[in-house]
Amino acid sequence: MAKTPLLGRTLDELKEIVFGLGMPKFTAGQIASWMYGKKVSSIDEMTNLSLKNRELLKASYEIGCSAPVHEMRSADGTVKYLFSVSEGNFVETVYIPEDERATLCVSSQVGCKMNCKFCMTGKQGFAQDLTAAQILNQIYSVPERDTLTNIVFMGMGEPFDNLDEVLRALDVLTSDYGYGWSPKRITVSSVGLRKGLRRFLDLSDCHLAISLHSPFPAQRKELMPAEKAYPIAEIVEELRRYDFSKQRRLSFEYIMFKGVNDSMVYAKELVKLLRGLDCRINLIRFHAIPGADLEGSEPETMLAFRDYLTGHGIFSTIRASRGEDIFAACGMLSTAKRQNIDSE
Ligand SMILES: C[S@@+](CC[C@H](N)C(=O)[O-])C[C@H]1O[C@@H](n2cnc3c(N)ncnc32)[C@H](O)[C@@H]1O
Ligand code: SF4
After folding, report:
1. Does the ipTM surpass 0.90?
2. Which atom belonging to ligand 1 lies closest to the Cα atom of 112?
3. Å from CA of 221 to ligand 1 middle
4. In this predicted model, what pLDDT tens digit does every residue of 178-228 receive, in sequence order?
5. For ligand 1, is residue 170 a contact (CB within 6 Å)?
6. Which top EC class is named for this enzyme in its record (predicted)?
7. What is the mean pLDDT of residues 83-95?
8. Where are the beta strands (DSSP E) in the chain?
9. Confidence class of residue 247 from pLDDT cuts 50, 70 and 90?
10. Is the confidence at residue 319, as pLDDT, over 90?
11. pLDDT in tens, 254-271
């Protein structure tokens, strides 16, 4: 019989588990400390639990960690890992070293329902939500886990479409009983889903990145069908209710497509849309994907766009493009793996 993973359980959930097994409640804290602090990979290693309790726990539970099944290293140091989450389903996790930072980009779903025109994960369609255990395993099981400085939920999937599991993973990541990470080192990226946005902002202190890509509703709808359900103007209105001037940072992601959204008309409209909001804009280079009639903007166009935005009060940066030589666009590697399996 398949065992239930302990990874991804909050302290309260661990207390319920040990209580159900007739163990004292403090055992939950010991398990959390072994798992999240010492990062053991088996229940046998939890040596301050009695042998009897370890056996009892092992009968139904396991840590639930599993190593990546594949990895690809870029010449620039970026490493893309592929984790198997169920029969024929894989997710990508990307390690990005950069000066003093070491960022891990994690996935929240296999595939995605949002169907953005420019995204390879969107093209896969939706296969499954990841559990908190599968989200945390991406951190637990990469060789660089102890050197990480930042975590971004910018891999496969829409985090607000799987918010219960994402919030559970964030609780473990940011609590003292868990990994004890500062929420300032974690960013969750979303297209903006109505229910999820407010819930995330109320229940988590982590940074938020909203994928914007066009300030014009008709064009945003064409690029990102999620605009139909929750227009960017309403998202921005909702965001105005929160304070982003202190610990928590709000940023907008803006992929620059040549001749599509990269003229000054767009920069001006962005300034209008975001006026008065404490935020920054990250301009992203488009990673070409097969079958999309879109091209990335020229570097000079991106620089001029950035300078206009920054000059008009919205601090903007151009995100360095990493790992171009290893199927950089998120979803490319897992799609290739799936196609490989299909042709076997
Ligand atoms: C893959 S998504 C995952 C998080 C969330 N679903 C979202 O869209 O914000 C992370 C970021 O990658 C961007 N992205 C998707 N496909 C891309 C591509 N082909 N080139 C560059 N950025 C891309 C998205 O727009 C988003 O800003
Ligand atoms: S960009 Fe984000 S929301 Fe859009 S399809 Fe890709 S993963 Fe989903």
Report:
1. yes
2. 6
3. 15
4. 999 999 999 999 999 999 999 999 999 999 999 999 999 999 999 999 999
5. no
6. transferase
7. 95
8. 4-5, 61-62, 70-73, 79-86, 89-98, 101-105, 109-111, 126-129, 150-153, 186-190, 207-211, 250-256, 280-285, 316-319
9. confident
10. no
11. 999 999 999 999 999 999
Q: What residue type is assigned to position 242 of the chain? A: Y
Residue ID of nearest Cα to ligand 1 atom 4: 154
7 lines ligand 2 (CB under 6 A): no
Segments of the chain assigned to CATH 3.20.20.70: 70-343
Q: Which residues on neighbouring strands pair with residue 296, listed in sequence order? A: 257
330 is catalytic: yes
CATH fold label, 70-343: TIM Barrel (3.20.20)
65, 206, 279, 330: which one is catalytic?
330
List all residues 6 or more positions away from 246 whose beta carbon is below 8 Å from its beta carbon. none
User: Quick one: DSSP state of residue 130?
Assistant: P
Q: How confident is the model at residue 246 (pLDDT cuts 50, 70, 90)?
A: confident
Coil, helix or strand at residue 50: coil
Q: 92 catalytic, yes or no?
A: yes
Mutate to test the pocket of ligand 1, among 112, 189, 227 (most ligand atoms within 8 A of CB): 189
Which ligand is the nearest neighbour of the Cα of 159?
Answer: 1
Assess whether pLDDT exceeds 60 at residue 229.
Answer: yes
Q: Does domain 4-62 have CATH number 1.10.150.530?
A: yes
The residue with greater pLDDT, 332 or 283, is: 283
Type of residue at 272: K
Q: Average pLDDT, stretch 144-167?
A: 97
Report how far ligand 2's centroid is from the alpha carbon of 155 (Å). Answer: 9
Q: How far apart are CA 19 and CA 51, in angstroms?
A: 17
The more confident residue out of 328 and 72 is: 72
Ligand 2 touching residue 116 (CB < 6 A): yes
Where in the chain are all domains bearing CATH 1.10.150.530?
4-62
